[in-house]
Amino acid sequence: MNTLPLEDSPTTLPQLIEKLLQDQDIAYQLRLQQHAGPASRQVQACLLSDNIGNVLTLIPKDHLLDLKRLHELLGRELVPVRDVELQRTLAKHQLNQLPALPVLFSSPCVYEQSLLQHDEVWLDSGLDGWVLQIQQADAEKLVAKASAAKLGVPLSSIPPLPDDPQQDSADLHQAMTNFTALRMRQRLEETIEIPPLPETAQRVMKLRVNPDATVDDLADVVETDPSLAAQVVSWAASPFYAAPGKIRSVEDAIGRVLGFDLVINLAVGLALGKTFKLPADSAERTTPYWKQAIYTAATIEGLARKIPRAQRPELGLTYLAGLLHNFGYLVLAYIFPPYFRTICRHQEANPHVPPHLIDQHLIGVTRDQIGSWLMRYWDMPAEVATALRHQHSAGYTGEHAAYANLVYLAQALLRENGIGAGPDMPISDDLLERLGIERADAIAAVDKVLAAEDALKTLVNQYQRG
């Protein structure tokens, strides 16, 4: 075997992997991940299982592994191996990621046939941040005992987000029609029995648009909900806000520590979060719902303050958009419970694919569209509905673009630090320029949030208990 040394290489591969490659006479270069070629030539591995045993699949990273298609091919209901079992297998081989090496496993392997069309490919090596670059002839040796098939869906074939938000209702209705296998003609809100906007949220939103509303008015609304009142006081007492002295009342919490706008948006976020239960099922290796919501809101709060005052969007609404950015996830689980399990399994099998694209492929509508549609149905501010709908569109420049762009930027910064779901999200100079934020200031904003981890846990726990 010829191992070509590079300046960016660590000392060696794990001994087992090096031996397996040597036994097959496969030459490779060990490269840093950022030096890998295009996604179409990078290989994504997934270890699946059923009551018969395990199957390893290999697809290009510009494809989505379709479990339904795999079932049609193999006649087996395969799902991703549970994380605890996978970590145990990796630890046994002194690895910290699943390598795309069939020779490591005694189980059958199926690979996307387009993989061998390229003169070279890049495989996950088993070491975080490192890939194996191998030539086509060696790739053919690697999968000599595997089966080729069409088991992936090109991401480029998944329809993009419609330009018109009015299309969201039709898409959701069509998804519901397909889901129920009935040709219902009721209005969408009758079909899926969406609950009304919670009373507390209604009262708080009325205060938000009332220019004469006072701290006392807000305190009166908060105090009608004992759970909310207790949490507002607890938020104010959290180390995250470092309030001087003891917090003695809701008025004290609002007037001296949190402020009118922040309490309004925290209260609305909590009230809306109570309308849908957290789903019992969820994709493994993803950030819990409320942690992701709180961290995104806190990051947006810091980012928005970096925007020059003359072009700065409304701080309260940017915070609320961050808090609710993943609300469509809760609604998705509520509307499509059996499909939601399938979505979770596909998300586990495709960590390289943004979750909203998995939604689009499987049910024809995304969690972003669903969340945005519900915001409009509940007559929430248009800025929030837009932020939810276009939160994954880095180039969005339409109405209320700053809100959507801030949610995108916050998620991208948090993804770089292991919070959220899906692949890293690129942060372009154009995005930062449109927002008027320097890259160094954006990094400083997320670093401040991450440094307050212990304090933020208090807020996360309050939401989870609420």
Automatic annotation (TrEMBL):
Q: Which residues form a coiled coil?
A: none
Keywords of this entry: Membrane, Transmembrane, Transmembrane helix
Q: Which Gene3D superfamilies match?
A: Hypothetical protein af1432, YbaK/aminoacyl-tRNA synthetase-associated domain
Where does the chain cross the membrane?
Answer: 315-336
Q: Name one Pfam family in it.
A: tRNA_edit
UniProt KW tRNA processing keyword:
no
The name under which this protein is listed is HD-like signal output (HDOD) domain, no enzymatic activity
The organism named in the record is: Halopseudomonas salegens
**Source organism phylogeny:** Bacteria, Pseudomonadati, Pseudomonadota, Gammaproteobacteria, Pseudomonadales
